[in-house]
Amino acid sequence: MSGFRLLALTGAIAIALNGCLTTQSGSTIATDGDEPIPRLTAAAAPGARPNLKSDEAGLRMMYDKAEAGMQTSGALIRDPELNQYISDLVCKLAKEYCAEIRVYIIRAPYFNATMGPNGAMQVWSGLLLRVRNEAQLATVLGHEIGHYLKRHSVERMRNVVATSNGLAFFQLAMAGAGVGFIGAVGQLVAMAELTAYNRDQEREADLFGHQFLVEHEYDPYQAAKIWENLREEQKADGDDDSKSLFLASHPLPNERRETLDKLAQRTDASVINWETGQDRYNAALRKHRKTYLQDELQLRRFDRFEALLEMLLKDGVNTGELRFFLGEIHRLRNEGSDMETAQRHYEQALKDGGAPAEIYRSMGQVHQKSGMPAKAKAS
Ligand SMILES: [Zn+2]
Questions:
Q1: From the CA of 372, how far away is ligand 1's center (Å)?
Q2: DSSP structure class, residue 76
């Protein structure tokens, strides 16, 4: 039991490192050939509680403590409408398990979602910014619900404790406990690798995600699109994964994208009215997007952010806001012809409409730096 006490100390960090989107998934799960796609079911009945003396109960207690800390965290996004929207979607997917799951939206500019064994789910704002429609969100939430339904973290804990990685895990977790869960990304990446779900678990969770999409008549091809889009960002960054929570040290999850695509292809005939729920998603995110974009800008990962903005532009939602941030990238980088490019983006943003009021201050600064004080004053 001493392992539990040690783990309990590190709950706040541990809850952030169910790096389940971090691992590469295999491709052998009946996506080829004529075998039917397996239908997965939960490991326990709705409302089932583990024996109080079991290791599972200990693990849940640790997460309960971490969850209590999360409820008072400054990073928690409390907006009632957004919380309602995501919780409703979770309930729609989890059905009779809905009452066991609590959603926490965390303000952190990285693509990440986690699920604790006690039903505490985290969805990070960087994920919400990158997900493009309700179907894509549903596949990620469905994946996390899948981990919960299959009790994967209990299996994982037993593996960690049973292997030599156990000691390294505790040491890293102890070191990370003082950092705060959005503090040191590098450390989180290291821990995510060490405590990641294994390939079979990821495969099962992906299959759950797919199963939920089909069940609710969401476009199953949207699942693979998430990985395609993340790949675009990564390419723009020169394939630098050193600060990537979702890819950690693993190679690009091409395999996973292919698996999800194959699943979608095999599902074509059985789905009648696919939807992506794009309008509902855009409506839910509308008033939050600017804040999340601002958080991304502050990371100063300019190439990557530019690739993300170019992708978001394709959806045509409030393009003035997106072009403002394109301008901001160039203004802050300020190399070569960046100032002229910034100016071009700002002008287009004003034409498009919907740019935030800060655009005038930024335009003034660009004029100033370009040696046009009269124009700067006018801005
Ligand atoms: Zn996962």
A1: 52
A2: B
Rounded CA-CA distance 192/169 in Å is 10
Q: How far is the CA of 112 from the centre of ligand 1 (A)?
A: 10
> CA triplet 148, 125, 100: central angle to 5 degrees?
25
Three-class DSSP labels, 312-355: HHCCCCCHHHHHHHHHHHHHHHCCCCHHHHHHHHHHHHHHHCCC
Query: How wide is the angle at C-alpha 235 spanned by C-alphas 229 and 237, nearest 5°?
Result: 110
Q: What is the pLDDT of residue 58?
A: 80
Domain boundaries, the chain: 2-270, 288-378
Measured in Å, residue 100 CA sits from the centre of ligand 1 at 18
Q: Is 228 helix (H, G, I), strand (E, B) or coil?
A: helix
Q: What is the pLDDT of residue 95?
A: 95
We find that the CATH architecture of domain 288-378 is Alpha Horseshoe (1.25)
pLDDT of residue 301: 92
**CA-CA distances (angstroms) from residue 343 to 208, 317, 360, 365?**
47, 21, 11, 10
The C-alpha atoms of residue 19 and residue 170 are separated, in whole angstroms, by 16
The pLDDT of residue 320: 98
Spans of the chain below 70 pLDDT: 1-35, 163-195, 239-253, 268-272, 373-379
Q: What is the pLDDT of residues 65-91, one digit of tens each?
A: 778 878 888 889 999 999 999 999 999
Amino acid letter for position 253: P
List CB-based neighbours of ion ligand 1 within 5 Å. Answer: 20, 202, 205
Please tell me the predicted confidence (pLDDT) of residue 59.
78
